[in-house]
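Re: beginner question about structure tokens

> Can someone show what the tokenized structure looks like for a real chain? I only ever see the sequence side.

Sure, here's an example I had lying around. Input first:
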Amino acid sequence: MKGLAAYAAVQKLDYEGVVEQYTPLVRRIAHHLKGRLPASVQLDDLIQSGMIGLLEAARHYDASQGASFETYAGIRIRGAMLDEVRRYDWTPRSVHRKAREVSEAMYRIERRTGRDARDTEVASELGVSLEEYHRILQDAVGCRLFSIEELSENGDGFLEEHGGGESDTPGDQLARERFKAALADAIAGLPERERLVISLYYEEEMNLKEIGQVLGVSESRVCQINSQAMLRLRARMRDWLTG
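And the corresponding structure tokens:
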């Protein structure tokens, strides 16, 4: 908390009321993310970075934009936590490269066929066995954060080119709304099992073991399905994320 106080002093913010009221929100988001992160990520580190995000939210919040402060703060808090995770991402480059290759393979297949890319097709496109393909998915979800939150954060790279603060123009706001709508459509268009895993994981907040029991598969298989869903979303949001 000393670091937080020093930060607030530099920013000349009256942070005490904000901290007192919204610390439970920071802790709730931290615990929610912790369950999706490697064991090496410390809860206290997430909370500390989330508190900085909370103060940034207080400094930049503009009620005229329509969102409630809690909604806006939640976005900034989560973003600060994800930044903290990325700062200590020691995942081998080969894992990142293979994950990108999976996403690109899905993109090519779905452009060619006009339907969902199947596991066997992606493996064939990559020139690997089905077992190796599933291992790539497992490595991806096990070594770093592959989530709706991270996908949205990557989308912010596009959104920042179209505003993203208190000076948003109507055009900026429209671009942001279109991105959100495109992401919602992409999620709705996922294969049924991938969509179900995402719904149970992010909306019902079930853990992987519980989801495995619902689907009748192992926890590791749920990890693979979740990873595949995220990479499929990346493929389908490719123009937004790299545009």
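Each token stands for a local structural state, so reading them left to right follows the chain. The chain has two domains: 2-87, 93-242.
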